[in-house]
Every structure is written in structure tokens, then in C-alpha cells.
Amino acid sequence: MCAQELVLKQRTEILHALCSSGSAEHLERVLDILLAHGELLWEDYQNIQVLGRALYTNARWLLDLVYTKGVDTCEHFLTALKQVLPEEQGAALSFSGCCLNLEKREESQSTSTQTLLTHRPSLVSKLQGCIDGALEALVVSGHFNSGDCNEVRLPVHTPSQQARCLLDHVRSKGESAAKVVLHYIEQKQQSGSPLNQEKLTPPKEFLKYQKKLSSSVSAQSCFLSTYGGTSHMSLDDIYTEGQLELAHDCADVHGPLGLEDIVGTVGTVSEEADTVLVSGEAGSGKSTLVQRLHLLWARGAALQDFLLLFPFSCRRLNSEQRELSVQELLFQHCCWPDREQEEIFQFILDHPHLILFTFDGLDELKQSFSDEHRLCCPTQRAPVHILLFNLIQGSLMKGVWKVVTSRPEAVGPLLKKHLRKEVSLKGFSPSGINCFVRKHHSDPTVAAKILESLQTNTALLGLCHSPVLCWIVSQCHKELLGCGEGSLQTITDVYVMILQHFLQHQSPLKSNMGLGWLQEHLKTVLRLGQLAFEGIGTTCYVFSCTDLETCGITDKDICMGFLIQSKDMSSTHSKRYEFLHVTMQCFFAALYLVLSTNTDRSAILKLFEPQDMRDTGLTSRCFGACLPSTDQQGQVLGGEATAAETPNLQITATFVSGLLSQRHRNLWLHCCPSALMEKKVKQVSRCLSKGMQKHFKSIPQPVAGEKKSMHAMPDFVWLIKCIYEMQESKIAKDAISKLEVDHLKLTYCNIGPVECTALAYVLQYLRNPVGLQLDNNSVGDVGVEQLLPCMHICNSLYLRNNNITDEGIRKLIAKGIQCDNFRKIALFNNKLTDACTQHFSHLLKTKQDFLSLRLGNNNITAEGAKQLAEGLRFNHSLQFLGLWGNKIGDAGAEALASALENSKTLVWLSLVGNGVGSAGASALANIIKNSTSLEEIWLTQNCITRTGVECLIQALEHNTRVKSIWLRNNDLSLEEPLTELTLIKDHRSSLP
Ligand code: ADP
User: Fold this and answer.
1) What SMART domains does the database record attribute to this sequence (predicted)?
2) To the nearest 10°, the Cα dihedral for 452, 456, 459, 460?
3) For residue 251, which phi and psi values (nearest 5 degrees)?
């Protein structure tokens, strides 16, 4: 008797077994299991578990539902029931054949909210003993209020019901609440580990020190420095979550990470290592993120496994010229213990796992990471960078956790070797931009206007994914809203806007003086520019008063707001300054290069060839405050531009390109002789063109019969961005039209919306169509929209793993349909659902030369497959169709089969891992029977049984063209000879 019949026949007995005790526990445990296995949807669960309704009624609802869901669900239900009921009760029921392995559910959850579901049974049991702790964690993190807690703690609830109620509430609060609970449970589980603080009794002086350190960390981190001067903004008010992802592929982690995951176990690649790297481009929010960690720790709201947190800024460590021991480094640079230094330090040494160091901006350290100088003694003195490198490697103070931030360019393989894991910070998501703008402006109408204006200018919207640019745009909202649609396109445009904003802020009465604003402040700009320029050349980001005096910077210049006083935890009292952000320093350096009549003529040329920096004036002048001892000075000047310097030089070069663009030239008209300006423009254009040629020359000749392919070198995207900043189509045309390749590969190149804008701007001038491969970047929907201008030169577009949703696809396909060359698209591992399939269907109907559609690893169900089938029915060109890892099931397979059974073009079809059973397989057999073109069909990892396989075999008898049908991992029992079957035409004779 099948499971469905068993459920029906034993209805009364099952109801009795579930409800007769009067306790809802059995029913709820069954529900937990069915939810975990996806047999019940959340909506189903809510329909069954109606508060206040009789237990029997709820159970009846469940029985009705599992029955209507069919045999599989009934089988799961009976297996769950058997597992939940006490043996003597279960014995009265027949479960014949229902013995699914409920433990072995494949982990495919992509979010913490899903984990809450898939692990629900075990979470319910784990939470029972620690409801209060979990509630506290949720309150501290701001997800629960006292009303939520009271509901969970209702006295009528049993402990397991409290746990379920807590999980249900957490689900309604969203992903970050789910993360908090999972993290809490994880920590609870590790309570046997050295992280368990309860067992520790730190000495009294240590506790005093802890208090002093945390109040000092709290004071340092509660405000954001970009809102210095007049407009203080607390981090709590403005902090907006950025997109954090693991930098490396990790099978069981998909989707975004939370702050706590940085030091959590998720994504660990080396258990041995204690250093976590947070990498991200300049302005992506790394410093703000560590500042947030500091604040949460100091406030007791996160990272509470760590008793002490020592925050370091690498740019400030640059000024430490003395040799120090670790003890001196900690106490002098972070917080001085009033008493018992030795005892406190000994406690730190004895409990390294309870200590966290953060090193912000490793890329700003003068020295590149090296593991040559080994040091293991914590009392031995050494130059600070040697201490730092040894701490990171773990040769010094092994076991102390380190969180290091850096730009990705500055992280070489030598450092990667010592990492526990790497997480990438990708700036704001589209909803993050929204959230940030709303937080920035207390007046909701202003926020709404800014957001509206961003929607009409997607190039600018793309820029706003970078938090620093989002900050500028919000800061300059008056200029933004007053400057007319679409006038802000480039990064330089945005920085010119903030330049104007800050300068005019000082003379508001003259705000209508047209282009004269720069002329009026030219001297200030040049003085700050000189400071910035020379700092960039010497890896100097913190300036002493003497440095400022050397450039003639006055108090009035400082008041403009571009320089802020450097926060320093160390005890030195002399004032130091830094630019609002490193990109601001690069911008001023670029202004200096463009506007100054004093710079070395070759400076611009050399800026575009960073390896030659040491020969230019750029590295020849140094400042007292930022230079270490004379020896190290020799080292810095003698070496090539370090990995750390190059990104800043490149940003500066990008700004130089933008400042010299036609659109900004009017601004400089009265500030600089025009002949000199023309010369600089020519220099830059030549540099860009030469740089591109160098790339093209490096393309190897293709092997006979293969396409000519270019894999972008690291600087390629940077050059493209510089060309975009110049906003001159002639330069773009000249630079790219000589590129003759069939395939342009830009995988893993950190391409986000901004890069897409620049790429499309330049690639649109390619002479011949190319395959554009952008797999494994962060293109997103905004990036997709930015790519549209170059769609006409793309014959194939590869956008695997790029965070694209249905909305991005809608725009992409609307454009693609109009592009004659567009023939292939690959969108594996994005965020597509059934909502996008109508667009593909339209594409297939409309474009009768479309060849390949690959949509693997998305969220397409039977409904989506039916939509696709609509298009396929009218298509006479498609050769490759890939739907691996979706959920089309039998119904989807049947729809596709019916649409494709007369296809004369389909060569390859993949439905791997789609829950296709024998019904689907026998429908697909029709394609095999009739097709004159099909060569390969992939059906691995489905649930096809012997019946389905037999249909496929029979169909093969009628077909001479099919070469292989892949069937591994289907529902063929061990005894059957068809297990692990690959049907290959040539071996047909060996089949049973
Ligand atoms: P990075 O260290 O990567 O160069 P920062 O953290 O200095 O970037 O960010 C630059 C500016 O962008 C900050 O000063 C702040 O104004 C804004 N910003 C960055 N991240 C966030 C965030 N998560 N929430 C709010 N503002 C942010």
C-alpha cells in the first residue's frame, strides 16, 4: 500500500496517536520535521498551527494537506511520525516502506533564515535550555523588544514551544535576526572551548583595564570622521550594512555574511591561522566596518568572546619610529594600564583566544607584507611593521585573533598563506543605498528627492554602491538636485561637486559666482594638493603641523573641511591631520598635478606607469612625520612602488584623466595656462592609448581552430576607467578599436556597476562582436543596466555568479532582443526566479538565431519551465539549454519535453538536479525519440526510477544521433544494475 493510502486508511489512528495525550508536542515535532525537509511551506505551517484552535483540528488540517500533497509528502509524514511517536504508540500504526533517511537532507540553504527552517528540529532542542540567553542576544542586537520577549516567555508555553515561538518571531524579523540566533547557538555549543569566559576569573586590575580600554574604544568609535567639524553624526545613526561575502567559494555558504561572521567559523579555510582579512576597494567601508565592530564590542553588543579588543590604524602606525615590544605597542598605542602592567600583560599572554586585534588599512602601511623577519618573543623590541607581520602570521602571540583590512590589490600570496579566511566588502547593495540616504537625511522629502534623482541617473546610482561616494552625494544634495539630470556621470564629477560644496560652504554669499569659485580658492587647492601629492608619493596619510607648514597650509585652509584631525589612541599630544578619506587625498594630488605649473613634466607620464615611480618627483620629497628612521627611508625610496602605493597612484591617475576631460576644462580656464593644459591632455590620452596597446600586444595568437581570446590583465579595468573619466568618444574609439579578439574574459576582476559603466562606454566602439565573459564579479542589476550600451557588440554574454535578479534580466532581454549579434547568454548562479522566464520566452520567440541559454543554479520551478516552454515551442534555433540546479520537477520537464520534442536544432540539454522523476523522464524520452539534432542530455541527480530509465532506453532505439544520456544519482536501488548508469549510445548493447 502506498504512503498516501496509508495516511488515509489510518486517519483515525494517526489523529489519536498525535493528539490523545492532550499535548501538542508530537504534532509540533512532526511539523518541525516536515518544515525542515521542505515538505511543508511556511504558509502551510501557519495554516495548520492556528493559535487557539483545537489540537485535533490542527492535526486534521495537517493530514488533509499531506494527503493532497501526494505520495512523497505522505511518505515523509509517516517517517516523521514514526520518529516522533514513542515506540508503543507507533507500534499500533503501519508505516510499511516509509523509512526515509530524515537526517540526510542535502544542505542547500542560502540564508540564515533558511537554516532556521532546515535545522528546525535540532534548533528547537538546542534552544530549550537557553531561551533567556537567546532573547537577550536578540534584544541587545536590536531585533527584539520587550513585547517580543514576553510573547516567547508566555507561561502557558512549554520550553519547546518557547523555542518554536522564538524561532517563528525571529523569522518574521528577517535575516540579520536569524544570524544572531544561529551565532548565539553556535557560541553556546562551543562553551566547552577556551572561549568560555564563565570559567575565568580575571584579576581585578585586568577588569579595570578592560573597562578603561572599552570606554576609550567606545569614545573613539562612536562618531564617523567624515561627519567631523560641524555636522557630527553618530555611527549608530548612520551605519548601514554593507555587502559582506566570502572571498573564496565555500560549498555550504551562499549569500551575504553578517558582522559576527567575520570572527565566526563560517568559511574558515585554515583552522591553524588566526587572521581574518576584510578586503575591499577604497571607500567600500572597511574602516567604518571595523569601527562598528569596535563600538559593538565596547558596548557589549557583539564579539563578547573577546575580553580585550585592541584597535590599530596602520596609517597611524606608520608614524611610529621607535622599536617597540608587543606590550609597549598595546599599552602605548591603545590604552595605558594604570597599575599592574605586568600582571595584565601576563593575563593576555595566558589567554590569547580572548584577545582581538584589529589592524585597519594594511595597504597603507609603508612596508609590504613579508615573513622574512621572524620574531616570537613578546618582550623583544622590533620595528612596528615587523611586530605587525609576526602577529599576523601567528609567530608572535599565537592564538590572538586578528582582523585586518586592506584593499585587495595589496594582498599578495605571501599574506594569503597566513589567513584563516578572507571576506570581501562590496559596498552598499541597492537597498543599502536607499537605507543610507534615508538615515543621512532626517527630512524624508529630501531623502526621497535624492533617491528619485539617483534612479534617473543610473551611472551615478552605480557610483553610490561605494559608500564614500554615497556619502558625498548625500552630503552635496543641494548641488545634486540643482545640477540637472544626468550631469554627474563620473567619479571625478562627484569629487568636483564636493570640492565646490566645501569651498562654497566657506563663502555662502558668493554661491552664485559661476565658475569663479575655483579661481577664488585656487591657492588653497594648490596648497592642499601639494600636501596630498607628496603624501601619495611617500605613502604618507597622516601629516604633522610641520608638514602642513611646509606646504604653506593655513588655519583657514584647514577650516575648509578636507583635512580632519587624526584620531590617535596613543599618548602623543601633538596634532596630526589626515584627509577626510584616502580618495580625497588622491583627488587633491590629481588637482595639483593638473593645476600646478611646478610639477615635473614627466610626472603625469610616470603616474600612468607606476613601476617607474621612483624616478619621478613623486617619491622624492618626504615629510618628517611620516618617515621612519633614515634606514627605512632608504628602503622606501630605493624600492619600486609597493603593492600598497599602486592603488593610490591609480586612483590619482583616474582623477587626473577626469579633471582633464573636456567637461571640466572650463573650470581650470582661468587657473592654468591653456597651452599647458592641452599638453597635459595629450600626455594622458597618449598614456591611455599606449597602455591599451600594451595589453593587446600581450594577447597570444590562438591555437588553430580556436577563438582569439584575451584575459584581462589587472590594469586593464583601471585603464578603461580612466578612459571613461575622460568622457571623450574619440579617445575611447582610438584606444579600443584596434582590439581584435573574439572573446574578452574579465572573470574575478572586481567588476561592479561602476566598472560596467566604464566598460560599456569603451567596448561599444569595438569593431567586431565579442563574447564578453564577466563571470564571478558583482555586476548586479544596476551593472546589467550599465552594460546595455555595449550589448550590440556582444555575441555571447557570460554573467555567472553576479547577483542578478529578474529585474536586471527584464532590462537585459529588452535590449538583447534588439541586438543582431546577441546569440548566447550564461547566467548560472544568480538570483533568478520564475518571474524572469517570460522574458526569456519572449526572447526565444523573437530571436530565431539565438543559440544558447544557460540558467543553472537559480530558482526556476515548474511554472518557469512552462513559461520557457512557451518560447521554445516557437523557436527554431536554440542549440543549448541548461537548467541545472533549478526546481522544475516532473511538470516542468513535461512542459519542456512537449515544446522541444520536434526541435531540429537542440543539441544539448541539462536538467541535472531538478527533482525530475520518471514521469518527466518518460516525457523527455519523446524528445529523444523524435529529435534529429539532440546529442547529449544530462539528467544526473534527479529522482528517476527504473520505469523512467526504461522509457529513455526505448526511445534510444529510435534515435541514432544521441551520444549520451547521463543518469547518475537517480532513484535506482542498489540491487538494480542501472545504478550509476550512463547511457552511451555506443554501449547500448550492454544495457539490460
Ligand atoms: P574604506 O576604509 O574602505 O576606504 P571607509 O570606511 O573609510 O572606507 O568609508 C568611507 C566613508 O563612507 C565613511 O567615512 C562613511 O562616510 C561612509 N561609509 C562607509 N561605510 C559605511 C557604512 N557601513 N555606513 C554608513 N556610512 C559608511
Assistant:
1) LRR_RI
2) -30
3) -55, -45
Q: Which 3 state secondary structure label does DSSP give 534? A: helix
Q: Is the CB of 406 under 6 A from ligand 1?
A: no
Is residue 282 lining ligand 1, measured as CB closer than 6 Å?
A: yes
Taking the alpha carbons of 266, 267, 272, 276 in that order, is the dihedral positive or negative?
A: negative
Q: 745 in ligand 1 pocket by Cβ < 6 Å?
A: no
> Is 739 a residue whose pLDDT tops 60?
yes
Of residues 800 and 374, more confidence is placed in 800
Residue environment code for 515-532, b if the CB has 16+ CB neighbours within 10 A, otherwise e = eebbeebbebbbbbbbbb
- Binned at pLDDT 50, 70 and 90, residue 635 comes out as very low
Tell whether ligand 1 has an atom less than 6 A from the beta carbon of residue 221.
no
The answer to whether residue 639 scores a pLDDT higher than 50 is no
Write out pLDDT tens, residues 355-373. 999 999 998 888 888 888 8
440 lines ligand 1 (CB under 6 A): no
Q: How remote is the CA of residue 289 from the centroid of ligand 1, in Å? A: 7
**Cell numbers of 418, please?**
597566513
Is 288's C-beta closer than 6 angstroms to any atom of ligand 1? yes
Using the mean position of ligand 1's atoms as its centre, give its distance from the Cα of residue 472 in Å.
11
Distance of alpha carbon 752 from alpha carbon 924, whole angstroms: 40
CA 581 / ligand 1 centre spacing (Å): 9
Distance (Å, rounded) from C-alpha 234 to C-alpha 220? 11
Cα–Cα distance between 95 and 72 in angstroms, integer? 13
Ligand 1: nearest atom to the Cα of 405: 2
* Residue recorded with cell 548601514: 240
- Phi, psi for 853 (deg, rounded to 5): -130, 115
Residue among 301, 300, 296, 432 nearest 358 (CA): 296
Least confident of 394-403, 646-655, 697-706: 697-706
Q: In 3D, which of 579, 589, 608 has the Cα closest to residue 530?
A: 589
Q: Which residues of 861-887 are buried (b: 16+ CB within 10 A; e: fewer)?
A: bbbbbbbbbbbbbebebbbbbbbbbbb
DSSP 39: S
Q: Where are the beta strands (DSSP E) in 399-442?
A: 401-406, 419-425
* SS3 track for 474-504: HHCHHHHHHCCCCCCCCHHHHHHHHHHHHHH
Residue 647 CB less than 6 A away from ligand 1 = no
- To test the ligand 1 pocket, which listed residue (222, 244, 288, 289) has its Cβ within 8 A of the most ligand atoms? 288
Contact between 214 and 297 (Cβ < 8 Å): yes
Q: Ligand 1, atom 5: nearest CA belongs to which residue?
A: 285
Which of helix, strand or coil describes residue 937?
Answer: strand
Cβ of 242 less than 6 Å from ligand 1: yes
Which of ligand 1's atoms lies nearest the C-alpha of 289? 23
Q: Kindly report the backbone phi and psi dihedral angles of residue 887, in degrees, each rounded to the nearest multiple of 5, phi listed first.
A: -135, 55
> Does the beta carbon of 284 sit less than 6 angstroms from any atom of ligand 1?
yes
Contact of 810 with 782, CB cutoff 8 Å: no
Find out whether the beta carbon of 285 lies less than 6 Å from any atom of ligand 1: yes
Q: Which triple of cell numbers denotes residue 114?
A: 533558511
Q: CA angle at residue 363 from 359 to 365, to 5 degrees?
A: 75
Contact 102, 83 (CB under 8 A): yes
Question: Mutate which of 471, 579, 580, 750 to test ligand 1's pocket (most atoms within 8 Å of Cβ)?
Answer: 471
Say if ligand 1 is within 6 A of residue 226 CB. yes
Atom of ligand 1 nearest to the CA of 581: 7
Query: Is 224 near ligand 1, meaning CB less than 6 Å away?
Result: yes
Summarised one tens digit per residue, pLDDT across range 32-64 is 999 988 889 888 898 888 777 788 888 999 999
Confidence of residue 252 (pLDDT cuts 50, 70, 90): low
- Determine how many CB atoms are found less than 10 A away from the CB of residue 454: 24
